[in-house]
């Protein structure tokens, strides 16, 4: 028997960093008919959901079972935001990544298309590998990309599958760059440097950044496209509602900043003088490290996005002052 979910929105990974921020942003826009899907486990990710408003919750494996048993069981769904994945760049169980990140995405995409729902999914900037082939979301030569880790490959594989199957332009794939912000406390080693550095400063008064092992980059001058999660979800919603959007889009600020600039912004947000040490990078990361990422956002802009992104220093100040210091979650405002 189909449930009455006409006009509902599905958000997988809805308790995670981007997923919970998306539910928060949807709430801000008056949406509450939301089905949150996640795997809560034994960590404290559930705390991200407490201030949010949504209509129902399913575990990820429950959703897979429901759709396998009866594809019409969820009723009429308008949009599926598939953000759920194992996002650990250090995960070595490639079989798990293939099932969770590739096969589940493939099956969910086909289901969404069959029931007439818009399908928006998280790809990743990790699909670009070391960036030597560029970070162009307008390229059609996806098969040329060489991700540096199994996580990036599992995301890349679905992008390539969708392209070969002729489905990519019917979907919206989002290549998120370095997203940081409230609701990432549960991510362990995958937390942003902002979250880690805040706690380092509180405990020791200092921050450790990786030394550089590339002759073109001095210590601390490795560069990333850092994107505040509030911007990330606004870009996501924009593309989901843009009439002609389809295919892959970079989701970033369009600006590369050094780790030093980021660390200095964190100290400034705390009203402290920078105290920065350079530490050895773990051996297992050295051959897989991206020294430069920057999102080309021309395609996003062409879709009608005109807001830009919050400046790094302003975003860090908001994150630290409004969330980390008082220990608040999105929705506690």
Describe this structure in words.
35% of the residues lie in helices and 16% in strands. It is built from 10 helices and 13 strands. It has helices at residues 17-28, 60-69, 94-115, 150-164, 193-204, 229-241, 259-269, 283-286, 298-302, 312-324, and strands at residues 8-12, 34-38, 56-59, 77-82, 118-122, 172-176, 178-180, 207-210, 223-224, 226-228, 247-251, 257-258, 276-279. A 7-stranded parallel β-sheet has the order 3-2-1-4-5-6-11, sandwiched between helices. Strands 7-10 form a two-stranded parallel ribbon. Strands 8-13 form a two-stranded parallel sheet. Strand 4, helix 3 (94-115) and strand 5 form a beta-alpha-beta unit. Helix 1 packs across helix 6 and helix 3 runs parallel beside helix 4 (150-164). The longest helix is centred in the first third of the chain and has 22 residues, at 94-115. It starts with 7 loop residues before the first strand and ends in a 9-residue tail after the last helix. The mean pLDDT is 92.
């Amino acid at each position: 028997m189909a449930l009455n979910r006409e006009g509902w929105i599905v958000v997988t990974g809805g308790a995670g960093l981007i997923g919970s921020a998306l539910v928060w942003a949807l709430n801000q826009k008056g949406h509450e008919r939301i089905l949150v899907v996640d795997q809560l486990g034994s960590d404290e990710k559930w705390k991200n959901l407490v201030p949010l408003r949504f209509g129902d919750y399913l575990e990820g494996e429950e959703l897979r079972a429901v759709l396998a048993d009866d594809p019409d069981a969820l009723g009429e769904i308008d949009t599926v935001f598939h953000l759920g994945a194992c996002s650990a760049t250090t995960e070595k169980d490639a079989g798990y990544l293939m099932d969770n990140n590739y096969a589940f995405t493939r099956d969910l995409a086909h289901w969404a298309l069959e029931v007439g729902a818009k399908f928006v999914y998280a790809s990743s900037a990790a699909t670009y590998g070391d960036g030597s082939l560029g970070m162009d979301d307008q390229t059609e030569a996806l098969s040329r990309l060489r991700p540096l880790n199994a996580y990036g490959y599992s995301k890349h594989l679905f992008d390539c599958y969708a392209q070969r199957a002729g489905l990519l332009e019917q979907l919206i794939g989002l290549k998120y760059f370095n997203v940081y912000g409230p609701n990432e406390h549960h991510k362990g080693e995958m937390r942003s440097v902002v979250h880690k550095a805040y706690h380092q400063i509180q405990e020791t008064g200092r921050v450790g950044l990786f030394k550089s092992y590339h002759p073109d980059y001095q210590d601390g001058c490795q560069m990333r496209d850092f994107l505040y999660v509030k911007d990330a979800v606004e870009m996501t919603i924009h593309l989901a509602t843009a009439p002609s959007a389809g295919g892959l889009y970079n989701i970033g600020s369009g600006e590369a900043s050094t780790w030093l600039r980021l660390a200095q912004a964190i100290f400034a947000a705390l009203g402290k003088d920078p105290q920065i040490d350079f530490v050895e990078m773990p051996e297992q990361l050295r051959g897989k490290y991206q020294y430069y990422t920057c999102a080309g956002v021309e395609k996003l802009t062409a879709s009608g996005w005109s807001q830009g992104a919050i400046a790094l220093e302003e975003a860090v100040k908001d994150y630290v002052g409004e969330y980390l210091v008082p220990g608040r979650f999105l929705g506690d405002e």
